[in-house]
Design brief:
heterodimer; A: alpha/beta; Aspartate Aminotransferase, domain 2; Aspartate Aminotransferase, domain 1; 3 domains; seven-stranded mixed beta sheet; B: about 450 residues
Chain lengths: ~500, ~450
C-alpha cells in the first residue's frame, strides 16, 4: 500500500473504531436471542470491515473526490461515439418525484398506470424515430441491447428451422459487437472497409453466405461517415437470408432525418445515455432499448408493456405487462428495465418534439463539419489529416500518424496535453483501422465559441510540439495526478484496500 | 432553436460559409434522397420546461408508490431508507456527468470511489476480487454463467428453484448463446435439494437468502459442487450478509447480487447495480471494469482501470464479456451507503430486520387461514401460504392501502397459494400489526370453503 497525502486518503484510511453515521431505528418488538433466529453455523464470525466514519467526514471525503473528476457540466467533452451532450437539469427533478422513484417494480399494474403509460409512450416515440414499430425497453445498456438483438436473430432463424453460425461485423465496429457475437454463440467474420471509408461491398458479397445470421452495422459508421451504399448492403444481407442489425451508438446524427427501419434494418438498439441525455454517471447507468420489425416482434423479451383496449368503466385504456409471449427469447434482466432512465429520456423527447430532435441532428452534424473546417483553417489537419476527405456526419476521425512522424508526439501525448487546457480528449486509438486515431464528436449542445476554442487549443499544442515535443510527452502537469503507470497497475494488482 | 442548442442564424451562416456549403441540407448529401424523411416523425413535443414537469408529475401521481401505501413488497427489490447524504453527493455534476474514466488523470474521484466500492463488496462477500459493477442482479447471474462456461467448458448449469425467477429466466435466455443447458433443482422444506450431480455440471447456482427468504446452508451446497469439480455461483442479498457467513468463507467461487438495497431507489426496477466478486483463480475472466491502484510519474498514488485486456474494447470477440457502460453512479451510491452504515451499523440494521421479521412471521402465522410455507431461518423476508385466493386477498388489502407482498403464483407455479412478505427497517411494529389485522380480515373474507380446492 502506497502512503498517500492527507487530502487523498481512502474512506477506509479515514476510519476510526467507534465513529459512526448510522443510528438504527428503535427495536420495537420483543427481542429474541440471536441464536434462536439464526443458528451459529450460518452466521459470520466477524462483521465486514466497512469504514467507521461520521457523516461530516463522509460528505467531505466524497466532495473532495468529486473535485478530482472532470465532468461534462464543467467542460467540453468531444468523445467520439459517446455523444457527451448536455444532461438537462429538469430530468433529475422529474426522475426524483416519489411517484417514479419510490415505485416498487412488482407493484400491481393497477398501481403503476403512470409508469406503464410513460413506457408505452416512450416505446412509441422510439419506434417512430427508428422507423421500426415494435420496441422493448428492457436492455440495460447498448451492449445489452446488442446481445438481445443477436439472440433475437438466433430465435428468428431457429423458428424457421435454420441454424446459422456466423455474424458479420465491419472492422470499424465497436468492440462490443464482436464480443456480443461470441456471447450469443456465433463466429465473428470481419468485413473490410473500402478506400472511401464505406463497407467493402465486394468483401461483403463474398462473405454473405447461407451460414451468415446477421450483419451488425453502425451507420453513420465509427468513421463518422454515412454508408452511402446502405441500399446495396441491405440487398446483399437480406438476399443471403440474414438479418440487418443497427448499432444505435451514432443515432444522434440522423434523428428525424432518416430512419434505420426505412433503410431495411430489422433490429435497432438505442443508447438512451447517448442520444437521449441520460447522464453517464462516470460509467453508467444507461439503457439500451431495441426496436424491431414485424418478423422479429414475436421473439421480443418479456414482459412487454402493452395498452389494452378499455377498462370496466369503458373510458380509460389500461396499460399492462404482457408475459404471454410463447416465442419470446425470455428475460435479459430483472423487472422492466431502467425505468429511471426512461423518465429522463421521455422528458427529453417531450421537451424537443419531432422538430427539436431533427434540429439536434442537424446541429450535431453542422458542429462536426464546422470543427473539421476550423481545424483545416488552423493548419491542424497538416499533422492530423482527416481519415477520409468527405463531408462527415456528427463525428470525424483524424490520424495522428504525420504528427507522430514529424512532431515526434503521439496521439496519446496530444490527448494528455489537452487535459492541461481543461478539455476532455477525444476518443483515441479507435477506430482501429486508422493509425494514431482521434475520433471527435462535438455534439449539438456546444457553442461555436467552444468549437473555435478547441481548434485553437489543438493548433497551440502542435505549435508547442514543433518547438519542444517533450512538453506534450510529459503532459499533463495541472491535473490531480500526472501520467499514471497503467502497465504497473496490471502487473502488480492492487484491487482493494489492504486491511 | 431548442433550449439545449445554441446555434443562432448568424452562427449557422458563418459556420456553413467556413465549411463551404450553402445549407445544412448539403451536409446530408451522402444519405440517398429517397431514404430521407419527407416529413417530421410523428413525435409530439416542443413543450416548455414547466409543461414537461407537469406532465411527468401527473404520470407520477398515477403510480402507487411505497409512500402511498403500507408496502411489504420485496422479491428482489426492497424499500430501505436512503440517507440524505447520498443524493447530495451523487447529484454533484462531477459524479453525475463524466464518462467512463478512460482518462485517469482527470477521473481520480470516480476511480478511487470504484476502488473503495470494490473493497466493500470484497468484505461483504468474503471474496478477494470485485469488479466495479455490472447491470443488476439477474443479469449478473447470467454473467457469472459465462465465466463458468470458460472456466471448465462443461455443459450444464444446475440452478436451484430458490434462485430469483428473473435470474433463472435470464440464465435460460442466455444459455443457448453459451451452448449450455439449464437444469433446475427443487426446494425441499424451503431450501435447495441438489440431488445427484455429475461431471457435466459446470456450475451450481444458488441464492442466499433464497427467493423464499430462507437462509441456505451454503457451505454444504458449495462442497457438493466442488465434489464433482463444478463451480458454485451464489446470488446474494448484501444486507443479510452482515450476519450470514460470507459466500467466500463457504467455498463459493462467484458471488453476485442485486445492489439496489445499498442506497439506490426502487425506480420501478432500475437503474440499480449488480455486484460481481470472485476468487483469484477466476480473476482474469471477470466481466466489466475494475479499478486498480498504481502511481503517477511523480510517485503519487493514483487509480486506473486495470486488467483491461479482458474487455471488449481491447479483446473484441475474445473478451470475457460484452459489457461496456455499467452502473458506476449506482455503485457509488452503494459505497456511500455502506460507509454511512459502517462496520457496526450494518450489523445493527440487519439485526433489527431479523427481529422485526421474526415478530412479523409469528404474527402472520397466528392468523386463521395463513400458514408458514417453510420454517427455515430468515432475515428480511418470509413466505406464507394462504387458505384463500391470493390475488383476491391482495386486492382487499390494497383497498385498505396495505400491500402485503408478492403473490408467488405467476413465477412459482408450485406455490399457487404463496405470498412473499418483506420487512425492511422502514416497517415498524405498528405497521406489522396493521398488516396482520388487514390480512386476517381479507383472508377471512376470501377463505375457501372447507372442501374447496385452490384453483
Amino acid at each position: 500500500m502506497i502512503r498517500a497525502a492527507d487530502d487523498d486518503l481512502t474512506i477506509y484510511e479515514r476510519s476510526k473504531p467507534g465513529r459512526r453515521a448510522f443510528v438504527a431505528p428503535e427495536l420495537d418488538v420483543p427481542e429474541r436471542p440471536l441464536e434462536e433466529l439464526l443458528p451459529a453455523e450460518l452466521r459470520r464470525a466477524q462483521p465486514p470491515r466497512l469504514p467507521e466514519v461520521a457523516e461530516p467526514e463522509i460528505v467531505r471525503h466524497y466532495n473532495r473526490l468529486s473535485k478530482r473528476n472532470f465532468d461534462l457540466d464543467t467542460g467540453f467533452y468531444p468523445l467520439g461515439s459517446c455523444t457527451m451532450k448536455h444532461n438537462p437539469k429538469l430530468h433529475e427533478r422529474v426522475a426524483a418525484l416519489p411517484g417514479h422513484a419510490k415505485l416498487h417494480p412488482l407493484q400491481d399494474p393497477r398501481g403503476a398506470q403512470g409508469a406503464l403509460e410513460l413506457m408505452w409512450r416512450l416505446q412509441g416515440a422510439l419506434g417512430e424515430i427508428a422507423g421500426l414499430p415494435h420496441v422493448s425497453l428492457q436492455p440495460s445498456a447498448g451492449s445489452h441491447g446488442e446481445l438481445a438483438g443477436v439472440l433475437l436473430t438466433r430465435a428468428y432463424h431457429e423458428d424457421r428451422g435454420e441454424r446459422r453460425t456466423k455474424v458479420l461485423t465491419p472492422e470499424t465496429a465497436h468492440g462490443t459487437n464482436p464480443a456480443t457475437v461470441t456471447m450469443a454463440g456465433y463466429e465473428v467474420v470481419k468485413v473490410g472497409t473500402d478506400a472511401h471509408g464505406n463497407v467493402d461491398l465486394d468483401d461483403l458479397r463474398a462473405k454473405a453466405d447461407d451460414d451468415v445470421a446477421c450483419l451488425m452495422l453502425t451507420n453513420p459508421s465509427t468513421l463518422g461517415l454515412f454508408e452511402s451504399g446502405i441500399e446495396e448492403i441491405e440487398r446483399i444481407v437480406h438476399g443471403a437470408g440474414a438479418t440487418l442489425y443497427y448499432d444505435g451508438a451514432n443515432l444522434n446524427a440522423i434523428m428525424g432525418i432518416c430512419r434505420p427501419g426505412d433503410m431495411g434494418f430489422d433490429i435497432v438498439h438505442f443508447n438512451l445515455h447517448k442520444s437521449f441525455t441520460q447522464p453517464h454517471g462516470g460509467g453508467g447507468p444507461g439503457a439500451g432499448p431495441i426496436a424491431v420489425s414485424q418478423r422479429i416482434e414475436p421473439f421480443l423479451p418479456r414482459p412487454q408493456v402493452v395498452r389494452r383496449g378499455q377498462t370496466d368503466n369503458g373510458s380509460e385504456p389500461f396499460y399492462d405487462l404482457d408475459y404471454d409471449r410463447p416465442k419470446s427469447i425470455g428475460r435479459l434482466r430483472g423487472f422492466q428495465g431502467n425505468y429511471g432512465v426512461f423518465v429522463r429520456s421521455y422528458a427529453y423527447i417531450r421537451s424537443l418534439g419531432a422538430a427539436g430532435l431533427r434540429e439536434v441532428s442537424e446541429v450535431a452534424v453542422l458542429n462536426a463539419n464546422y470543427l473539421l473546417a476550423r481545424l483545416q483553417r488552423e493548419g491542424v489537419l497538416e499533422y492530423l489529416p482527416a481519415a477520409h476527405q468527405r463531408i462527415c456526419m456528427h463525428e470525424f476521425v483524424l490520424s495522428g500518424a504525420p504528427m507522430k512522424r514529424e512532431l515526434k508526439i503521439k496521439t496519446l501525448d496530444l490527448a494528455k496535453r489537452l487535459l492541461d487546457h481543461g478539455v476532455h480528449p477525444p476518443t483515441v486509438y479507435f477506430p482501429l483501422i486508422v493509425e494514431e486515431a482521434l475520433l471527435i464528436e462535438p455534439t449539438e449542445t456546444e457553442t461555436k465559441e467552444t468549437l473555435d476554442h478547441f481548434a485553437e487549443v489543438l493548433a497551440e499544442i502542435l505549435r508547442e510540439a514543433r518547438e519542444d515535443p517533450e512538453i506534450a510527452r510529459n503532459a499533463p502537469y495541472t491535473t490531480p495526478v500526472r501520467r499514471l503507470d497503467e502497465a504497473g497497475a496490471a502487473r502488480r494488482l492492487v484491487l482493494r484496500q489492504a486491511m | 432553436m431548442t433550449s439545449y442548442t445554441s446555434a443562432t442564424d448568424a452562427d449557422r451562416r458563418e459556420m456553413l460559409a467556413t465549411i463551404g456549403v450553402g445549407s445544412i441540407e448539403e451536409l446530408f448529401a451522402d444519405i440517398p434522397a429517397h431514404l430521407r424523411l419527407d416529413r417530421l416523425p410523428d413525435v409530439e413535443g416542443g413543450l416548455a420546461e414547466q409543461e414537461v414537469y407537469e406532465e411527468l408529475r401527473a404520470l407520477a401521481a398515477r403510480n402507487v408508490s411505497t409512500q402511498d401505501e403500507l408496502s411489504f413488497l420485496g422479491a428482489g427489490m426492497y424499500d430501505h431508507y436512503i440517507p440524505a447524504l447520498i443524493d447530495s453527493i451523487i447529484m454533484r455534476s462531477e459524479f453525475l456527468t463524466p464518462y467512463t474514466p478512460y482518462q485517469p488523470e482527470i477521473s481520480q474521484g470516480g476511480l478511487q470511489a470504484m476502488f473503495e466500492y470494490q473493497t466493500a463488496i470484497s468484505e461483504l462477500t468474503g471474496l478477494p476480487i470485485s469488479n466495479a459493477s455490472v447491470y443488476e442482479g439477474p443479469s449478473a447471474v447470467g454473467a457469472a454463467g459465462y465465466v463458468a462456461k470458460f472456466a471448465n467448458r462443461r455443459r450444464n448449469f444446475v440452478v436451484s428453484r430458490g434462485v430469483h425467477p428473473h435470474s433463472r429466466e435470464t440464465l435460460r435466455t442466455l444459455a443457448p448463446g453459451y451452448g449450455m443447458e439449464v437444469v433446475e433443482v427443487p426446494l425441499v422444506d424451503g431450501v435447495t435439494e441438489l440431488g445427484d450431480l455429475d461431471a457435466d455440471v459446470s456450475a451450481v447456482v444458488v441464492q442466499q437468502p433464497n427467493f423464499l427468504g430462507a437462509v441456505e446452508d451454503l457451505e454444504s451446497l458449495a462442497s457438493r459442487a466442488r465434489d464433482v469439480g463444478a463451480l458454485t455461483i451464489c446470488a446474494c442479498d448484501p444486507l443479510p450478509l452482515a450476519l450470514l457467513k460470507a459466500p467466500g468463507e463457504c467455498g463459493v467461487d462467484i458471488a453476485v447480487g442485486e445492489g439496489q438495497t445499498l442506497g439506490n431507489r426502487l425506480d420501478f426496477g432500475g437503474p440499480s447495480f449488480g455486484f460481481f466478486a470472485t476468487t483469484e483463480a477466476l480473476m482474469r475472466r471477470i466481466p466489466g471494469r475494475i479499478a486498480g491502484e498504481t502511481r503517477d510519474v511523480d510517485g503519487k498514488r493514483g487509480f486506473v482501470l486495470t486488467l483491461q485486456t479482458r474487455e471488449q474494447h481491447i479483446r473484441r470477440e475474445k473478451a470475457t464479456s460484452n459489457i461496456c457502460t455499467s452502473q458506476a453512479l449506482n455503485a457509488l451510491a452503494g459505497v456511500i451507503y455502506l460507509s454511512w452504515l459502517g462496520r457496526r451499523g450494518i450489523v445493527e440494521l440487519a439485526e433489527l430486520m431479523l427481529q422485526r421479521t421474526a415478530y412479523a412471521r409469528e404474527r402472520m402465522h397466528a392468523i386463521e387461514g395463513v400458514q408458514a410455507l417453510h420454517e427455515r431461518p430468515v432475515v428480511r423476508e418470509f413466505a406464507l401460504r394462504l387458505d384463500a385466493p391470493v390475488h383476491r386477498v391482495l386486492a382487499r388489502c390494497r383497498e385498505q392501502h396495505v400491500n402485503p407482498g408478492y403473490a408467488l403464483g405467476r413465477d412459482c407455479p408450485e406455490y399457487p397459494d404463496g405470498l412473499l412478505v418483506a420487512i425492511t427497517e422502514q416497517r415498524t411494529r405498528a405497521d406489522i400489526d396493521r398488516l396482520a389485522d388487514v390480512l386476517a380480515a381479507a383472508v377471512a373474507a376470501e377463505r375457501y370453503a372447507p372442501n374447496q380446492v385452490p384453483a
